[in-house]
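Subject: sequence -> structure tokens, single chain

Hey, anyone have a minute? Need the predicted structure for the following. Not urgent.
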Amino acid sequence: MLLICFSANAQKSDSTRTYYKIIRGTIEHATELKSKRYVRNGAAEIISGRKIIASGLYKDDLRYGRWSFFNAKDSLEQVYNYTTKKVEFNLRDKHLSYYIDSLKTGDKVIYPIKVGGVNYAMYYLLNVFKVPYELRRSLGNYDLFYIFNLDESGKLIKFETKIASLNYNKIDVVDLAKLKAEDLEFAPAVLNGRKVASTIVYESKIIVE
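Reply:
Had a minute. Here:
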């Protein structure tokens, strides 16, 4: 079992206030110091609908220490430590596959991970895809791939979507400038103790009826 321990610093009711803020379609319930308006300090929760999808701490408006991220079934999906920059727990998603150049049998590998998990952070990346207009009247099933190319630090440097079928193939490159800085942040792949570039592929389906 993983526990989140909240710091007692600056948590007294006479020095803090709580507020709600809508961020990218979710509601963040956070704490701010009365002496520093609009600067988050202390405990926070991010809520989608009626479900908590993330919780943790802020320090001087930056995420601090352990944050927990939850999947659609309310189960713990990931614990990421923003202080140490390390993933402490991650539930693998069956839709994901990983590719690393020069990977050989017997190598020790840690696969890359989207910071914030699939249900919360990767959702914003998956949501950029829109079904092409010309496909909306073409009945059938299509494979859809989201292809994330990462450098050795774990930063997203190229993002493509690919639609594939016997009669239709299309690749689009996503403009990274339209994404937020946090969208580009991944924990890097590690091969034999060394951080390396890698590719993550998320596989989905398009069904046109």
